[in-house]
Design a protein that fits this description.
The complex is a heterodimer of chains A (about 210) and B (about 400).
Chain A: E1 2-7, H1 10-21, H2 27-30, E2 37-39, E3 44-49, H3 51-60, E4 65-69, H4 70-75, E5 81-85, E6 91-98, E7 110-114, H5 117-126, E8 131-135, H6 142-146, E9 151-156, H7 160-164, E10 167-176, E11 178-182, H8 186-189, H9 191-202
Parallel strand pairs in A: 1-3, 1-4, 7-8, 7-9
Antiparallel strand pairs in A: 2-3, 4-11, 5-11, 6-9, 6-10
Chain B: H1 18-36, E1 40-41, E2 47-49, E3 67-69, E4 75-78, H2 83-92, E5 101-110, E6 122-131, H3 136-153, E7 157-163, H4 164-172, H5 178-189, H6 193-199, H7 205-210, E8 215-216, H8 220-228, H9 232-253, E9 257-260, E10 273-279, E11 287-291, E12 305-311, H10 312-321, E13 333-338, H11 343-355, E14 359-362, H12 368-377, E15 382-387, E16 390-395
Parallel strand pairs in B: 1-5, 7-9, 13-14, 13-15
Antiparallel strand pairs in B: 2-4, 3-4, 5-6, 6-12, 7-10, 8-9, 10-11, 11-12, 15-16
Helix pairs in contact in B: 1-3, 1-10, 3-9, 4-9, 8-9
The chains are: A alpha/beta (about 210), B alpha+beta (about 400).
Chain lengths: ~210, ~400
């Protein structure tokens, strides 16, 4: 038996498409109601959860395989194997702020607002720049508009939210997409089952 | 504000009854394996100077260590690892002993993990160090001791072996900055061939991209040989893993051993063969070890060494969750109730029962009824009631 943790929402939708093309019966998930533990076929259980929890389940080994965005992986630790790029959910991490401003102007200590404080801290640390990171839970774009921060670090897909609010991308930080991750012990102890699953779905990934 | 007085710090545990017994039972089983293999036990202090853990290649970052100061303001740490203190002992107090020095240990280590990660910060570690020998024979002795230790636990397990020089030799061919090297190594460690592919503009990276997938049974060897090409360092490492595998297979452990040539964690620490052990149900390796020929040298005594550590905490959590309970080895248990004036008779009865193989306690309650309730609750087999010359027994199961 293997257990898969699947990130709810858009990643879930896209993944179900791939699973169905690979011949897995996803009717249990399509008609899930309020059930949390679901199954596709006899030997595969599926858990739907929030993205950061997918990583927690995989790190603790209570689930063997996880499907989660690279953005969440960059923010929340990495003691697992990252075996496949699922090719969807493509977007990028970017540093953005009020249009026309030069972020690096002046000597003042910069304040960055983000839902991803670790990604932000790592990015600036790796470049030898000290910044103050403020964690924001909701619409990060507000922070520079309200004068809370000099810039934001966030996921940008089309850039239209930034545009509509008079913001622009200053720098690209990283490209992200949906990934398949595997617990370090599971891959050794359940190798045959996990390889079969990976082979079947990797054949269905749109290149 | 909750009361710090009645709570314990993050990552700490009180272990009560079964859990406490299970952890010590596991430790005893492991120690008896080490003893049979000729390893002698050492203990080291819980407090060490921070300096002992501050050297190039030290795999544990300082933010994971609990620190305090001594009476002169010098920085101390709660022992974050057992191997380093044992290397210190070998390099100082044991340096005039004939080599090899074979040591074993079972003691707690302390590490600060991120909050709310569900990880223990106090972990019982048990393992061995074989100091003063290099060569395949000492590797094999160490790995077979690891296998016997996991066997003694009674759980289904696998051991995987690799060699750091396979990766090191191949990556050395590439022209890269230290920073790029660190990134590539992280990707190989996470078996993240996808992201390795994005580094792309370096011609040799294609070879590196295949390293993460070099794990499995002995079928891996042919693929690995192709990837190694004519790189003598990688071929040499591969040859060592092959020989180790063949020797372990010959010793009857073929079905227990896996290969992973993509093990690159703690690369600055290990210098040769590396291995890890997995048991069914634990989401992390419960055993990790390998050769670290530079470690003892940090303390001024330049000798090679190889060893491993078992995470007893992870083992006991896993066994406990799977329903395993310690101590249930068929010993009958009994409780004797008597009035105070009959205590002499009760002790006489106790001697008689002990001789018959019982584990016996005297009731500290004032009535038979209270004694019965307590004994039933604790799963005791039989109650004996002494009243003057009379002795009645009552089966509680």
């Amino acid at each position: 038996m293997i257990r898969i943790a699947l990130t709810k929402g858009r990643i879930e939708e896209k993944t179900l498409g791939i699973l169905e093309r690979a011949g897995y019966d996803c009717s249990d998930i399509r008609n899930k109601g309020r059930k949390l533990l679901l199954s596709i076929g006899d030997d595969i259980e599926v858990v739907l959860s929030k993205s950061a929890d997918v990583i927690t389940y995989i790190e603790h080994g209570v689930c063997d395989i996880g499907i989660v965005g690279e953005d969440t992986i960059m923010e929340h630790g990495k003691t697992f194997y990252e075996l496949l790029d699922l090719g969807f959910g493509k977007c990028r991490f970017a540093l953005a702020g009020i249009k026309g401003k030069n972020f690096y102007d002046g000597y003042s200590h910069k304040v960055i607002a983000s839902k991803y404080p670790t990604v932000t801290k790592n990015y600036f640390n790796s470049r030898g720049i000290d910044v103050e990171v403020v964690k924001i839970e909701g619409s990060v774009e507000l922070a520079p508009l309200l004068g809370l921060a000099d810039a934001i670090v966030d996921i940008v897909e089309t850039g239209s939210t930034l545009k509509e609010n008079g913001l622009e991308v200053y720098e690209e930080i990283a490209n992200v997409s949906a990934r398949l991750i595997v617990n370090v012990a599971s891959i050794k102890l359940k190798r045959a089952e996990i390889s079969e699953f990976i082979d079947r779905i990797s054949a269905q990934i749109e290149k | 504000m909750y009361k710090l007085k009645i709570n314990i710090p993050d990552g700490m545990r009180d272990m009560i009854y079964d859990e406490a017994v299970l952890e010590s039972e596991i430790t005893e089983k492991l120690e008896s394996v080490y003893k049979n293999e000729g390893f002698a036990k050492v203990t080291t202090p819980i407090l060490e100077y921070y300096d002992a853990f501050n050297f190039v290649g030290q795999p544990l970052p300082q933010e994971n260590m609990y620190k305090l100061t001594d009476n002169a303001g010098r920085l101390l740490v709660l022992r974050p690892d057992c191997t380093t203190p044992i290397a210190r002992v070998a390099a100082t107090k044991l340096k005039d002993m004939p080599l090899p020095i074979k040591l074993s240990y079972s003691q707690n280590v302390y590490r600060i993990n991120l909050g709310y990660s569900g990880k223990r910060n106090e972990i019982m570690q048990s393992g061995v160090e074989l100091i003063g020998l290099d060569g395949i024979k000492s590797d094999i002795i160490c790995i077979t001791t690891a296998i016997k230790a996991l066997e003694a636990l009674g759980a289904d397990f696998k051991i995987e072996i690799g060699h750091v020089e396979f990766y090191n030799s191949l990556i050395a061919e590439l022209d890269m900055t230290d920073e790029e090297r660190a990134i590539v190594r992280d990707y190989v460690d996470n078996k993240n061939a996808v992201s390795l592919g994005f580094i792309g503009d370096n011609a040799g990276i294609e070879r590196i991209m295949q390293i993460p997938l070099l794990f499995g049974g002995k079928e891996v060897f042919d693929r690995a040989a192709k990837i190694a090409g004519n790189n003598t360092g990688a071929l040499g490492a591969l040859e060592k893993v092959k020989r180790t595998y063949a020797l372990l297979e010959g010793a009857g452990y073929g079905d227990r051993v896996l290969i992973d040539l993509g093990i690159v964690h703690k690369l600055d620490y290990y210098t040769g063969i590396v291995f890890r052990g997995f048991i069914e149900g634990a989401g992390e390796p419960v055993l990790s070890g390998g050769r670290y020929d530079n470690l003892v040298g940090n303390f001024g005594f330049d000798v090679p060494s190889v060893g491993f550590a078992i995470n007893v905490g992870a083992v006991s959590d896993t066994l406990y969750k799977s329903g395993y309970r310690a101590g249930d080895c068929g010993v009958k248990t009994a409780v004797i109730y008597c009035e105070s004036e009959d205590i002499a008779a009760a002790y006489a009865k106790r001697r008689e029962l002990c001789a018959a193989g019982y584990s016996v306690e005297l009731s500290c309650f004032d009535t038979v009824a209270e004694t019965r309730i307590n004994a039933v609750g604790r799963g005791i087999d039989t109650m004996f009631i002494i009243d003057g010359d009379k002795c009645e027994s009552e089966d509680l199961k």
